[in-house]
Design goal:
152 residues, mainly alpha, 65% helix, globular
């Protein structure tokens, strides 16, 4: 295939549309979370991911697993965790069975803030999807997002 191949052009256009949808959604949610709760999208995502941890085997996430879950590099995840730890929303601790492993845990203040922010997040997501669905280029992608059912 060449750079002017119609199949490559279509792929590039599809990727641009997906990137546009993502950007619109993230920007809309970011504004809502910042103004309503002083949280960024990444901070919300991290608190949400960590809140799903549980005690017992396999219940805790190491920092690399957290980085993968919030789609950040390990160093960016560490900085993010540090910011939330400085705000007393979460804590870090050493794994009791493997002293090299560092785990995180959402504290009561983090869980409370997450609970307060969740309706704002969900409402902003719905608004961003509804607005994007009015764009003929993005409408099929919105339908695809709405059709996805990922187990929690």
């Amino acid at each position: 295939m060449t750079a002017t191949d119609p199949a490559l052009t279509a792929l590039a256009q599809g990727w641009c549309a997906l990137s546009s949808l993502h950007g619109r959604i993230e920007t809309h949610i970011e504004r809502a979370l910042q103004s309503g709760h002083g949280l960024s999208v990444r901070e919300y995502s991290l608190l949400n991911t960590l809140s799903r941890q549980h005690d017992g085997p396999g219940g805790h996430l190491q920092m690399k697993q957290v980085a993968d879950a919030v789609v950040l590099s390990q160093s960016a995840t560490t900085r993010l965790v540090t910011r939330l730890e400085d705000r007393s929303l979460l804590t870090r601790y050493l794994c009791p069975t493997d002293r090299r492993g560092i785990y995180t845990n959402v504290g009561d203040a983090g869980l409370k803030l997450l609970e307060e922010a969740r309706p704002t997040h969900d409402r902003a997501l719905r608004e961003a999807l509804d607005e994007s669905a009015r764009d003929p280029e993005l409408a099929p992608l919105v339908r695809a997002v709405e059709a996805v059912r990922v187990p929690l």
